[in-house]
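Q&A log
Question type: sequence-to-structure
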Amino acid sequence: MSGIEEKPKRVGHWLSEKKAKKLNIAVLSERLKREGIELVPIDLRQPVETQGPFDLIIHKITDLMVAADGGDEQAANAVGRIETYIATHPGIPVIDPLGAVQTLLDRSVCYQMMDDMKFKFRGDSSHFVSL
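Response status: OK
Response body:
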């Protein structure tokens, strides 16, 4: 043993209160701490830069992204903060990449992707309707 104590890995996360409760985040945080992983909540009302550094980011900001697309300024600011942090720290893995989440939020893009992949449901892709 080298005697050098390794710093815990820092995993930044943003989850809605409901999702955090469902995942029992406090218990998860304690379990991860025993494994040398610090689970750090990200406050999207504040600059993310001041809350890092992070070794990994986990988020469930789909609802915020939808609200931002709908014109909610606070949601847009929150999404912008995490986007800025991710853009200025490209080496930090993000689960799920925001661009991929945005693509999945756009149904017409999803339908086109499925059609492009020749996705077939019982031999017919016409089950997907664009409104």
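Response note: The radius of gyration is 19 Å.
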